[in-house]
Design goal:
The structure holds two protein chains of two kinds.
Chain A lengths: L1 E6 L5 H16 L4 E6 L3 H4 L5 E4 L4 H4 L5 E4 L6 H12 L1
Parallel strand pairs in A: 1-2, 1-3, 3-4
Helix pairs in contact in A: 1-4
Chain B lengths: L10 E5 L4 H14 L7 H12 L4 E3 L2 E5 L10 E11 L9 E8 L6 H12 L4 H7 L3 H7 L6
Parallel strand pairs in B: 1-4, 3-5
Antiparallel strand pairs in B: 2-3, 4-5
Helix pairs in contact in B: 1-2
The chains are: A alpha/beta, B alpha/beta.
Chain lengths: 90, 149
Amino acid sequence: MKIVTICGAGIGSSGVLKVNAERALRSLDLEATVVAADVATVRTVAADAQIILTTQEFVEAIGKTNADIIVIVNLFDTSELAQKLEDALS
Amino acid sequence: MGLPPLPESAIDLDVFAADWRAAVELSGAALVRSGSTKPGYAAEMIRMIEKHGPYVVIAPGLALAHARPGPQVISNGLSVVTLKEPVRFGHAHNDPVRVVLGLAIAESGAHLAAVAAVANIFNDSSAIDQLAAATTAAEVQQIMGVTPS
């Protein structure tokens, strides 16, 4: 499974989201490749992704995609991340 | 491990910012003082927020201001600014902001270890309160896990 985290520059928030998503996946005992990227490259990077993790600001810019988009409010809340990932994967 | 350099010169405590732009400018000025970026980096960080919205407010009370690697970045660096009065970035959930981190990354390939180190600090949700209450740069460095040089 591939998960892509998206933010504006592809270095800050998406990086934090990647680290914490990996933590949440471990707590769920799930394995996935998590890739951080910027919104400009989302179409290429997320072409084969099952899930896109992002914040509200980027939903519109991500546009049409086959992946499930999960919107995260607090990037450090791993229980929010775990809950939303579990819901998306079940 | 992996945290970008956070020298005393990059720490600015209990300062006043009239709005979010001023707060980001302070975090940029701190990165200039530590030699991490050129003065133009602050404007790049502000442009990211103008273009994409207040997504840099990554947790309640905490903004992680940053722009892309580029000619304005001299070397990896982190700055910490705590605000006398919180400012609003326009975030639906995480406003107002009391602590602004400025992050400069020289190469996009090498950023994840740095960002992971930042993420590890704030997985302790009390870290933001601790930073906001810090009165000395040494205290901030201790909270951030930096050994003062």
